[in-house]
Design goal:
It is a single chain. With 401 residues, the protein is of the alpha+beta class. It contains 17 helices and 7 strands. The strands form 2 sheets. Strands 1-2-3-4 form a 4-stranded antiparallel β-sheet, with helices on one face. It has a 3-stranded antiparallel β-sheet with strand order 5-6-7. Helix 5 (113-131) packs across helix 6 (141-152) and helix 5 (113-131) packs across helix 7.
Amino acid sequence: MVAIHRLTPRKVSTAKQGKYEDGGGLRLVVGASGSKKWVLRFSLKGKRREMGLGAYPTVSLGDARAMAAEYRQQAADGTDPIKARAVEPVRIPNFTTCAARYIRAHRKGWRNHKHQRQWVSTMKTYARPTIGDMSVDEISTEDILKILKPIWNTKTETAKRVQGRIENILDYASAYKWRDPNNPARWRGHLDKLLPKPSRVKNSRHHPAMPYQEVARFMEELRINQSMSALALRFLILTATRTSEVLKAEWAEIDLKTAVWTIPAERMKARREHRVPLTKESLAILGKTPKIHGNPYVFPGSRSNRPLSNMALLQLMRGMGYGVNEDRGDYVPHGFRSSFRDWSGEVSSYPRDVAEMALAHTIQNKVEAAYRRGDLFEKRRKMMDDWEAYLKPNANNSTAC
């Protein structure tokens, strides 16, 4: 008997041009462009037949196997599965099933697993109770408003994400002809006439930032603490980078000889590689962090082969009296980027673009972005040296560490 289920999800997702047999007549065909489709070969009354089962990843390995098993059984019973499928009524999924298919089809293009979890979580929390069991062709504008209205004014940012995600899922359903193209969750030209603009009701809450005039004193206090969390927080402040970028920094990204930390695109919010010039104190900090065999991270945590916890820097600041409802101010680690930006604008004489590049911000003007080729690295290096000097006003050009 010929073995079946020979392919694995990883083999399917990484397969290059060619034909790959799963067994039982099920085959994955990968074209020169990288497109992938499922094909089932079967015998009917002594004749070899072939039928397509759909494209990957819209049709997953599990889905393809389920369809192959059904169609093989029809052929074994003497029924032509190609003709039978042609007269089958279209099976319109409910919203939950459609959402799961959409997520499965698009998750490879998303930044990280966290983004995928957020999709699942928001649909489960907000959409499923109202429209989860509804057929996608029955969902109306009234149903969408039942989901959005209770949270539109109080959780505006979340509500807008929910709206956009439902809109994408229903567009996906329309593409498969499971519903008409008129999308009840569409914002432009539809829901924007029924709900107030998010900017009108959103209460933006930025990360609380320590005034730049207080950061030098904070750094002096922080230098006394030689814990891994304190070293990481100092490194974050000196480099004006994000918490996740620091905590997940790997030794392979850092060139100590040229004093450059290169953060790969997949770890950046804008999905572009970002070079960070390292100051003398930043390098001194790196000299104090241990290189642990088998652990690639610059700031290792207590767990084997893992970096510091996402909460490590926040907990450190709480222990120093900072945070929500704390005596010394509601400041958080991410806010130091704002502290740096305020310093650069009010104290330094560097152009705005240099500071924006240091923060790895995306150029909003498309024309300007098209002409901008460099990353102003040498100017940024001088800027970060001046930022370090500002944070050590009494250091007399010595590097404290």
